[in-house]
User: Fold this.
Amino acid sequence: MRLGASFIAALVMPFFIPSASLADSRNGERIFLNRCAMCHGNDVRGTGPLANKSNPPTPDLTTPEFKKRLLEYPGVIVSSIILRPNGDLIPRTLRENDVHLPAFAWTVKDFRDLNEYLNGMISKAR
Assistant:
């Protein structure tokens, strides 16, 4: 039986909702720069070297629409990583551009840290 994405999100999100007291933004930055910036860019605006090599192109995470989504659904960043609503887009883009990322054993803390870092970057963007 196949579970719906919203049902799975409801099950996993309580474990990934960031807690400011537990999150380490420096670790989140490290993860982002090593695993995400190649598409999203250091500025999270979709300016990385692979941003326009995916279809659709990498989105700007600082847009008013994304900020609104982040407020309405605080776990959107984490759930995007876990549930991959974009299907094979990320692995395919990496493969097609001969980018090989080492395997990464995500922990709950890593998700919190990344979410904390990205929330900070996005909220500071004008």
The chain has a mean pLDDT of 81.
